Amino acid sequence: MPIDDPTGPADPRELLLRHLDIYRSTVLGKLDGLSETELRTSRLPSGWTPLELLNHLAHVERRWLCWGFRAEPITDPWGDNGPEGRWHVPPQEPAAAVLERFRDQCERSRAIVAAEPDLDRRAALGGRFATASEAPTLGQILFHLFQEYARHAGHLDIVRELADADATPTPP
């Protein structure tokens, strides 16, 4: 749905949530049909692979909504890689497991957001945030997620364009 669709939601919350889901779907669509090799090979100067980027997005949702907004106890909010890691996906981990983790986390995130109707509600203390002054609102968190997805969907768009160009036979 285009952002300027007059039949789309006028409510800012619904608009934000619908477009966040559009980006989630866009990310999955960019990965759809890539070979196992393409999923695990980087085409970007950053060195990230498409599978690592999906792993990163699953952790971003978990870190911001479960640990951040809900202050749920999470022993590894940054995953196995720490806050500066590349979100490495071990070669023995099936791509399907990363896709499932991502989809499961998106469902968990949707449930957290659905349980809180107030975008102005501040994140609970005790998880990611120790003081009220640093705790963002749910709306700020969702907007941050939106920005993450927009940025990384762009990365995957480039990856997909390069992969598809390589897969297209050159006419003789």
Q: Summarize this, please?
A:
With 172 residues, the chain is mostly helical.
Draw up the topology in text.
Layout: H1 12-31, H2 36-39, H3 50-69, H4 95-114, H5 138-167
Helix pairs in contact: 1-5, 3-4, 3-5
Structure overview:
The chain has 172 residues and is mainly α. It has one domain: dinb family like domain (Four Helix Bundle (Hemerythrin (Met), subunit A), Up-down Bundle). It is 55% helix and 0% strand. It is built from five helices and no strands. α3 packs antiparallel against α5. It is globular and about 65 Å long. The protein starts with 11 loop residues before the first helix and ends in a 5-residue tail after the last helix. The mean pLDDT is 90. It holds the Pfam family MST.
- Biggest pleated-sheet summary: none
Strand content: under 5%
Helix percent band: 40-55%
Report the strand count: 0
CATH topology: Four Helix Bundle (Hemerythrin (Met), subunit A)
Poorly predicted regions: none
Give the number of helices. Answer: 5
Output the CATH class name. Mainly Alpha
| CATH architecture annotation name | Up-down Bundle
CA-atom Rg in angstroms: 17 Å
Give the oligomeric state of the chains in this entry, treating copies of one chain as homo and distinct chains as hetero. Answer: single chain
Shape, principal axes of CA atoms: globular
Mean pLDDT: 90
Distance between the termini: 39 Å
Query: Structural class per helix/strand content?
Result: mainly alpha
- Output the CATH homologous superfamily: dinb family like domain
Into how many domains do the coordinates divide? 1
H/E element string?
HHHHH
